[in-house]
Amino acid sequence: MLTKFARAGCAAPRPLASLLLTRRDCLSALQAAVAFRHTTKPAQHQAVSTMAHHSQEALGKFSYEVVPQLSSELSKGMSGKVATIGGCREYTGAPYFASITCLRVGADLSHCFCTSGAATVIKSYSPELIVHPYLPDSTDYDDDLAEDKKQKIFDKSLGAIKHWLERFDTIIIGPGLGRDEMVHHVVIEAIKWMRENNKHMVLDADGLYIVTKNLDLIKGYKNAILTPNKAEFGRLAKQLDVDLEDKDRQDQLEQIAKKLEGPLVVQKGAKDGISDGTTTIYCEGGGSKRRAGGQGDVMTGAIATHLAWILTYQERANDPAKFPGGLPPLMLAAWGGCHIARVAAELSFAIHKRSMVAGDVIDKLGEAVDKLYGSKT
């Protein structure tokens, strides 16, 4: 006798035990596939496990907490003293962008250390900046200059810079520095001094070029933030022997940060990745479709200012070890700086579109800061 299923042209339902067996088989197959994936790409699994699961809104609130409240009781310097080491006769825009951004975001004082060939030009951009023409430029001297005279020039330059460096909360190294060997020689010794004296630094552009060729300068140093663009990130990966093939973006970032053993790395992009090799967060809001030269310098200046604020917050906090969201202080500073730069770029792009340049972004920094931290003014 035909069952009702057969008469309807349908297969009879399978016994429950058979269904359970099939599910077990599927589960086993899935487990085997996952195990194979973890065996072939352990780093990807590892990268996901270190992701800090904070929303962009939560990160914004954490960043807000460390911004100093404006008050008539404050004195000059209490909201940040930042220096930029960069600027040569060929590149005067980059150090200006980084330095003026510090002031526009909210630092009280911004100094720039550059070569004599750049100093007058940078001074002409803005009287707000304090410009020191202390970096030597080999083109100012004869090729056959005696070694003892070169050493005197070097010692005088380094001494003049070191005299000032102890006064700053944060020091930016690299925008517009150029590739002059005499300049690099002084900067390398300045970085050594900063590390010995536990100074906080943000490295970008030619500063990254210097430390990529001399990794011992920053390897293992936790008071440094590196801000590479795509090309700089690739050079850093090559020097650290990190293979970027067949790795997702977070895995690439974390491997580089881990090999540096201390510095924080900010990987600039459509969304900015921030990692110390153990914890990784992203800054995703705002931004623009435009990629004009100088936008990275703006971000560097914003990060340096946030870092100065973090240090002030750390001094007044009851427990300096506890930061909003449980995040490392430098990571919170990097996220806050990225966020301001991205919001300013978004506001500027809405007006200028394809013609937007770095100066237009700087013009919107005040509006961006007010939008994010207006209640603290």
Q: Unreliable stretches, pLDDT < 50, 5 or more residues?
A: 1-49
- Strand percentage lies at 5-15%
Span between termini: 87 Å
- In the sheet with the most strands, the strands line up as 3-2-1-4-5-6-7-8-9
How helical, in percent, are the residues?
A: 40-55%
Helix and strand composition category: alpha/beta
Principal-axes shape call: globular
Number of H/I helices:
15
Q: Can you summarize the main beta sheet?
A: 9 strands, mixed
Integer-rounded radius of gyration: 26 Å
H-E string: HHHHEHEHEHEHEHEHHEEEHHHH
DSSP, total strands: 9
- How confident overall, as mean pLDDT? 87
Features:
globular; 377 residues; alpha/beta; nine-stranded mixed sheet; 9 strands; single chain; disordered N terminus
What does this structure look like?
It is a single chain. The protein is α/β, with parallel strands linked by helices and 377 residues long. It is built from 15 helices and 9 strands. The chain has helices at 4-7, 16-40, 42-49, 56-66, 93-105, 116-125, 147-165, 181-196, 206-213, 230-239, 249-260, 295-316, 329-352, 358-363, 365-373; strands at residues 81-85, 109-115, 130-135, 170-173, 200-203, 224-226, 264-267, 272-275, 280-283. It has a 9-stranded mixed beta sheet, with helices on both faces. α5 (93-105) links the parallel β1 and β2. α13 crosses α15. 44% of the residues are buried. Residues 1-49 have low confidence and may be disordered.
